[in-house]
Amino acid sequence: MLTRFVIVFNILAVAAAIAGTAPTKLPSSHVTLTQPAVVSGTALKAGDYRVIVNTGKVTFVMDKEMREIAATVETGAKKYDQNEVQYDNVGNQITIREICLGGTKIRLVFN
Predict the structure, then answer these.
(1) What span, in angstroms and rounded, lies between the C-alpha atoms of 79 and 50?
(2) What percent of the chain is modeled with pLDDT above 90?
(3) Neighbour tally for 110: CB within 10 Å
(4) pLDDT band of 39, cuts 50, 70, 90
(5) Residue 16 lies in a domain
(6) Dist. CA 34–CA 99, nearest whole Å
(7) DSSP state of 22
(8) Is 7 among the domain residues?
(9) More confident: 3 or 76
(10) Dihedral sign for Cα atoms in the order 25, 68, 103, 107
(11) 85 forms bridges with which residues in the sheet?
């Protein structure tokens, strides 16, 4: 009886240790680009994108197209009410400088 208890306790301890090391899940969100734009040299069409946030990169998914782009993921002090896309006009190109994800404190900054 005591041996079973020790075995079960060890199994539960190992399971708890493994669960404690699981990485935190960064959010994914839906963002609408109102116009075609360039993000870090990658052209994106206007439309609705699913944005998947990973450490050091962001993946834009629309239909069957996927674009993985390097980004700095920052956590702000306040929660954003809605998605905010900040565009810049560089020469004759519209570029995306940053995206703030609504409902989170996350800001994606593109170089």
Answers:
(1) 20
(2) 60
(3) 20
(4) very high
(5) no
(6) 13
(7) P
(8) no
(9) 76
(10) positive
(11) 99
Residue 1 domain-assigned (yes or no):
no
Number of domains making up the chain: 1
Distance (Å) of CA 18 to CA 5, 11, 22, 23, 46: 20, 11, 7, 11, 42
What range defines the domain where residue 41 resides?
Answer: 24-109
Distance, in Å, from the CA atom of 42 to the CA atom of 38, rounded to the nearest integer, reads 5
Q: 97 in helix, strand or coil?
A: strand
> Can you give the length of the chain in residues?
111
Task: Express each pLDDT in 69-95 by its tens digit.
Answer: 999 999 988 999 999 999 999 888 999
In a domain, 18, yes or no: no
Contacts of 41 (CB under 8 A, 6+ apart): none
